[in-house]
Specification:
Distance between the termini: 11 Å
Radius of gyration: 18 Å
CATH architecture: Alpha-Beta Barrel
Helix content: 40-55%
Strand order of the largest sheet: 1-2-3-4-5-6-7-8
Number of strands: 8
Shape: globular
Largest sheet: 8 strands, parallel, barrel
Number of domains: 1
Number of helices: 10
Structural class: alpha/beta
CATH topology: TIM Barrel
CATH class: Alpha Beta
CATH superfamily: Dihydropteroate synthase-like
Amino acid sequence: MLIIGEKINGMFKNVREAIQSRNKVVIQELAKKQIECGAQVLDINTGPASINPIEDMEWLVKTVREVTDAPLAIDTTKADVMRHGLELAGEGSFINSTSGDREKLDIFLPMAKEFNAKVIALTMTKSGVPLTAEGRLEVASNIVAAAIEYSIDTQNLYIDAVILPVNVAQDHARAVLQTIRDCKILCDPPPKTILGLSNVSQGTSVRSLIDRTFLVLALANGLDAAILNPLDEELMNAMVTAELLLGKMLYCDSFLEAYKKMR
């Protein structure tokens, strides 16, 4: 499974303060630790409190690039910030993200083509997140159709079925799992599937337990990638064990250590 580290995000207090004070040490330590713990891509988000998001995005990307050449997911809804981030991020970048609204797709899909970037697309529109798997799949179908129109390789398209917090939208969890399964039949080759995993536990008292349980369920239903906290060792161990039981790696008594060596 592709792991995108979520920790460089201005919504976190330590990151927000580091951006405001231009403290490189905090950001670079988070970048290095996430990679060491298994992240293959780093999400970069200036956060909603950013007054100058273009400048902040530039500072974040350049700061991270001083310590790693890992691919970056430029996390913003602002087209100008996205473009500037992609210009600086380089090879293997992700657009995180677009919605299923056609006007958004017409902005971000050409940008993905221009920068040879992968695209994370949410199964939501200006009307919100559909209640059912069928509604989510309809949005996903429209996203896939638009991607094909713009000659985007569907294997570079990541469909996010949008998991909502279990304490306010419990029924959505099953709809998300069904959507992950159903995305595999949308086209050939099918788009990848992804989740912003920590959303499922937002506002709950046992976040790590909920996150790792839902991740295992999602993997069993065909999930390809997740934006998550790679510093959560129990979460990462659950992921590795699930992939072992799904036959994605060979068993040995030291399979957790073996996985770390394979990274």
